[in-house]
Please model this.
Amino acid sequence: MSFRPLNDRGVLARWKEFLPVTDKTPFISLNEGSTPLIHSPKLSTLLGRGCEVYIKYEGLNPTGSFKDRGMTVALSKAVEDGARAVICASTGNTSAAAAAYAARANITCAVLLPAGKIAFGKLAQAFIYGAKVVAIEGNFDDALRLVREIGETEPIAIVNSINPHRLQGQKTASFEIIEDLGDAPDFHLLPVGNAGNISAYWLGYTEFHQLKRATKLPKMVGFQAAGSAPIFHGHVVEKPETIASAIRIGNPASWEFANAALRDSGGAIDIVTDEEILRAQAWLASEEGIFVEPASAAGIAGIFKSVDPARQSERRMPLVPEGSRVVCTVTGHGLKDPDVAKEQCGAVIPARADKAEILRLLA
Ligand SMILES: *Cc1c(COP(=O)(O)O)cnc(C)c1O
Model:
């Protein structure tokens, strides 16, 4: 067997002709992207009428969320531009990705977090990758405001999704889905926080549609948590609340871009409650073997809401026609937020080290 070099993997290597890179751009990569698109027989049956549901499992990226797709581009461009440090505000996954790619690039990473509101797995990542972590009194929106202010005066590259390279990298998930399905799906469902990802997917779909690599465009359907749903309500939410910390955002950075994607695709923004999110999270793990963090289950909760007869009057998601192909992005890995998962678990069953007793307990 011949040796196969591994530097041909990753978002930049696979999609460079569609990304803002030049001969001088270093590829800061951890072989992110190319995540699996998993058919869900049970969700397909749930929608019925010949519809097929596929799950884009972004939790399988190197740091466990889709943020790696954007971060490989943002860090590569920052290094190309001579940056010695990067900074971000984060609800957790952006900081994990920024810290990992900064480590890879040998530059400093500073992270501003809302104090006490970060899932433990994500905080552990920022530390172990060597970032400087500052917890501020305030919420995510306050942290992002401070990052913007620091970026105005200091020679530090901002790698939040207000950095346009992030969305460029994230749009590659659409390219992969089109390659896997042979065309764009009819619907694309995903959770919405800062609304960068829904904007990035739309960018990717429209780009491949213009290049005639896809014959159609999907309706984009975003789901916000009921307690932090600024786009749904049409106004800023001062104190966003939800167990789904990755989408606990009251004033989305990519709000206007997302509104354009919703309008132009004929899609919609809808809400799901924390209870529905947790139920969908547990269901996806126990029924399909896919463990995601709470925020990532918002789109799955949305599918359940869409088929619930009691919810038809309040739903905003358009009806899914017969034979539609539906893709649902699950954005981050379940191990990111072990505490929430733990609360959902049953208790262990204590037993003596005795075969008969164990068999009796398992019966
Ligand atoms: C960042 C993130 C989101 C929200 O994405 P936006 O681009 O902010 O809308 C959802 N889920 C997870 C796991 C995330 O890390």
Notes: The first strand starts at residue 37 and ends at 39. The mean pLDDT is 93.
